[in-house]
Amino acid sequence: MKTFTNRVPYKEFLSIVPHPVIIESLTNKYPVVIEKVEGIAKSRHTLGKIIPKLQHVQMKEYGYHTGLLKNENLVHTHVNPLVDQVTAPSKHEEEKYPETYRKHAWPQVEGYQEAVRDIFGVIQQCAHVMAGHLDGHVIKTLKPDASKYQSLVQMTKESQMTTARSFYYRERRASEDGNKPSFNFHYDRMNMSACIKDFFYLNGQEIEQPDGAGLIFNTKNKERYQLRLKEDEVGFHIGMTYHILSAGIIPAHAHAVYLPNTEGLSRASQAFFFSPSPHIEITPPVQFDNIASSLPEDEGVVPKHIGLTNWQPGMKYTDWNEAIVRGFKKVFFNE
Ligand SMILES: [Fe+2]
Fold first, then answer.
1. How far apart are the CA of 190 and the centre of ligand 1, in A?
2. Domains of the chain listed by start with CATH number
3. How far is CA 74 from CA 62, 150, 198, 291, in A?
4. Which pTM was predicted?
C-alpha cells in the first residue's frame, strides 16, 4: 500500500509558521509527519516494553473502557485515560454530561502512566506549535472578525480534556475477511489527533509494520494511504471539531485501522486526542451551513452522519461530545 511522504523537519516545524507542507498535507486529508522530534524515540522505547501488558489488564481494573467492537472477531483493548483533568462545576453538570466528566483511572501496569506522560510532554509541545500553523493558515484564508475566531493555540493550551488512548488489537480468526478493517472509517471528534509509530507483534515478538497494517487514510483525491512512522516521528491529523471551527478550511480526516489476517499478529498504538475544554462553543468565525456536505459521503465513513447532523452553531463542546460518543457506541460497540 502507498505510504505518506510528506514530512517536516522538527527545526522547520518550530520556525516556519504556517509551514506550506503542513497546510498542503492537512488540507488534502493526509496526516502530517514531524520528523526527528527530540525525546520521542527513547520514551517510545520505554512504552514499547510496557504496552503489551495492557492486553492482560481486566476491564474493571481501570476507569474507562469502550468495550469490544461490534461484529468483530478480534480482541480490542482500549485504555482511555485523561492526561488532563476536568472537574465538573456541579453535580448537575456531572450527571448531565457523563461522557465528559467520566472518572478515569490508570490501569495498574507498572510504569505505564509515567511512560505515557513522558511521551505526552513532548507531544503537547508539538501540539501547541501545530495549533499555531493552523491558526496562521485559517486566519489568512478566512480573514475572520478577530472577536469571532477561537484561537486553536489558546484552546490547546487551556484544554482540560486531552486523552491519551492506548489501543491493543489482537489477530482475527482465520475465517475473517482479511480486507475488513479492525476499526472502520470514521472522523475523530476532537480538534486534532497525534500518534507515534505503532508497535506490531508476531507471537509476542516485535516486528516491523506489515504492509497495509495500522492507520489508513482516505485522502481528498480518494486514494488510500498507510501511515508509516519512524521511531522519532509524530503524526498529526484533524478531527471534526477543528473542521467546524475552521469552516472546513482544515477538513477532518477519514481514517480506519487495518490488521492483516495473519495468525499471531497484534498491534498496539498510542494516540493523543486534543479536545477543547467542555464550555467552548463550537461555532466557526464565518457563516458555515454546509457542514454535512463538506465531509463527502464517499469517504467510507460509517455511519456518515455521526456527529455532523447533531451539530448546531453555538453548541457547547460538552453537548456535542455527548451526542457523538452515544452515536459511536451505537455503531461500533456492543453498548
Ligand atoms: Fe480515529
1. 10
2. 7-332 (2.60.120.330)
3. 21, 41, 18, 34
4. 0.92
